[in-house]
Amino acid sequence: MNLTLRVWRQAGADAPGRFETYPAEGIPPEASFLEMLDIVNERLERNGAEPIAFDHDCREGICGSCGVMIDGVPHGPQLGTATCQLHMRRFDEGDTVVVEPWRAAGFPVVRDLMVDRSAFDRIIEAGGYISVSTGSAPDANEIPVPKDAADAAMDAAACIGCGACVAACPNSAAQLFTAAKLVHLNLLPQGQAERDRRTVAMVDTMESFFGSCTNHGECETACPKGISIDTIALMNRDYLKARLSDRRLLGRS
Amino acid sequence: MTVTLDARIPAGPIADKWDNHRFSTRLVNPANKRKYQVIIVGSGLAGASAAATLGELGYRVKVFTFHDSPRRAHSIAAQGGINAAKNYRNDGDSVYRLFYDTVKGGDYRSREANVYRLAQVSGEIIDQCAAQGGPFAREYGGLLDNRSFGGAQVSRTFYARGQTGQQLLLGAYQALARQIAAGTVELFTRAEMLDVVLDDGRTAGIVVRDLVTGAVTSHAAHAVVLATGGYSNVFYLSTNAMACNVTAIWRAHRRGAVFANPCYTQIHPTCIPASDEFQSKLTLMSESLRNDGRIWVPTDPDDTRPPNQIPEDARDYYLERAYPAFGNLVPRDVASRAAMRMIDQGRGVGPLGNGVYLDFHDSIGRLGADVVEERYGNLFEMYQRITDEDPYRAPMRIYPAPHYTMGGLWVDYNLMTTVPGLYALGEANFSDHGANRLGASALMQGLADGYFVLPATIGDYLADFLNAEPLPTDHPAFVAAEREVRGRVDGFLAVSGTRPVDWFHRELGKIMIEQCGMARSRPGLEKAMAEIPALRAEFDADVRVLGSADTVNQSLEKAGRVADFFELAELMCRDALDREESCGGHFRVEHQTADGEARRDDDNFAFVSAWEWQGDDAPQVKVEEPLVFEHVELAQRSYK
Ligand SMILES: Cc1cc2nc3c(=O)[nH]c(=O)nc-3n(C[C@H](O)[C@H](O)[C@H](O)COP(=O)(O)OP(=O)(O)OC[C@H]3O[C@@H](n4cnc5c(N)ncnc54)[C@H](O)[C@@H]3O)c2cc1C
Ligand code: FES
Asked: Is B30 on the interface with A (CB under 8 A)?
């Protein structure tokens, strides 16, 4: 199939950016979106132009490296699908496709379609863990976890940290990412001891990098893993409780 | 000069070796630990778990990854599960059985003492990961669920839906994040290690290139740990993530670390076949599909009817026919080779004739579509997303793909390479899997190495260097290594040829999969050994890398990795040629039984082949580590 690409090119974080137009001709419909970019890149290189930089690795929707705005939509037109899992048969012959990096103050552009998402790591470092030093764990079956809790924790833990939620949000808020991790840990018995401390630290760190949530809900639609916006409600509840609660009573729940 | 290999296997009965060893190992006093600087390259399961644990113990740790976050490491993609000898099912599992299965599954080419230790610590890994909040599958009583995996006769595999690797890696990454926040670990992202620096025969540090600014810098340490993953991408198309490469361990090899069993590679039978020339990677479909799917090809190679119109008597369920006892559940290597034979006979299916059918029609009839959906729904969806075909209506097409590399840097019982102070963990070492890895055992090994083995063994080496400062990074050894790295990087840019890096990688992959893939022969390997240097020469003369070295330049990154793949590829072929037997994933067509099965030669090849670098102008020299089996009786595997 034959398409036209309008691609954001930017040489570095502080360099000015601009759209460039490239033909994408003779693309097999079974190619993935990133394979289409590979083909375009190989042709650019043969013609003496520098290839388009973009992050990617696993190409099966799990590492969270990939992610671009396709016609203004994070990860493109297919719901629940990361950019690397999108196939060209989703597009029509002759389409013009606009490809841009995530746009968010918390995600500065590194080059072309590549952004710096290290703020996500800072949020995890603030408290996105259960403190258990190696070797100190009890036998795994000594901590029974109700199946429903384990399943709900897993639903939240499925987040791949791609940043589509931030890119989709008109406020560039990172609520869905932060809530997914908080809910994963806060739902489990193992996560109770640090629940309040973790919630406050992660939310405060999030706010130092990202905008505030005003309940647009765009994040949920953009999430390639279908993380529910309900996690944000749980996070807000835990945050409020943590701000007000007496941490000495945490052991009672 | 050749090295002598001392595996440093502790004395005593096999069940006591690890305990005895830990007792006799020198310790570093807790107050002194912070005087030591340790560098860890790689933040996958092995690297992240090691870094977190060393940080908790009080060492000063630096972690380097070329990814933008530790959470992106290839470990994230593991699907099926992780083994542990917990015997929660009460189905007869034990440390001894896991040990036995692993040695047998590796076709008797691994070290007994290491494998036994792996089985011993397997249970603690699950404890650790569950305590960290790993959302493993559970039963209604709240206890952990298990499944049987990869043909094991017991249910010892723990899993988190189809995302076990993701959840284990996130657990290790979060433990690492905690240490970063505590200040014990310093993290360097988008930072690629390009050389190991030695001083007086010992490890002094590494040279790193910042992938954003291009800056080349040195980092000194008392010990360096490589946890940089496997090299399946030497085949170009594999199930590995795009960035997986051999550079870190290859650079260490060139500095004197001996490379073991490079030809032991695993080809996984159930992947989605390539659809065109531009395919960039292959997607694994979980092995569990073989529990309910039946594999077949048309009996007549000229049969072009759609699968549903091919009647039963015109189908060849070749695994069920040839291996009535195990049928579709034969081990990975056996299933892969059988599929290859079908395709070689011209009976492959699909537009490119490069697949075999995996058919769920019978199980849908027997169990109902909803049961099949419950078991495999996410896999069916993944298949449909990629191929646009509905596996509920028509059989899937599958084909074997390179998946895992058992070979890697040679390490002793302490996980130290032949270079003092240089360690290798996870898929990067030659590991505990012999000539073939069992399903769900790589995650186990990576975490065993990182959480439990290295933290217990590294003190023994470090104890000698109390109060010794690491080598200053302006020392001539660092300066020279930096200069070499810069020279190499600039060299790729200076070629100004006509063909992109990927073109060369694809061509190299074609040679390797054809001659050093599922079946290897003397003429084929010799042909490859002539073709690879020729292609390498073309690469050196004609590669085109545009742009500059002082900004993000992904083609430049790839150029260095592909150049190292060329050298590795030659060594793989040499090793495959040298090993005149068939074992595990290494199948030499000259060494097979009358009915086409692998024939091992225990009298002449029960050893580890470890290759020592001799410089650019001479081939590596082989050193052997004999394998002694005192507990497991060597037998021919049979699945008939
Ligand atoms: C699709 C798939 C499914 C799998 N499923 C299973 C399964 O169900 N069960 C199982 O047990 N195993 C499975 N495996 C195998 C298993 O996932 C891997 O063997 C294992 O995760 C490897 O872990 P690692 O820590 O050794 O390396 P990796 O996870 O590959 O990590 C390597 C790290 O090293 C870094 N690195 C590499 N080189 C450099 C350098 N030069 N400079 C800086 N950093 C560098 C990378 O950035 C990365 O952080 C699967 C593999 C694949 C491909
Ligand atoms: S490349 Fe890994 S999620 Fe897309």
From this structure: no
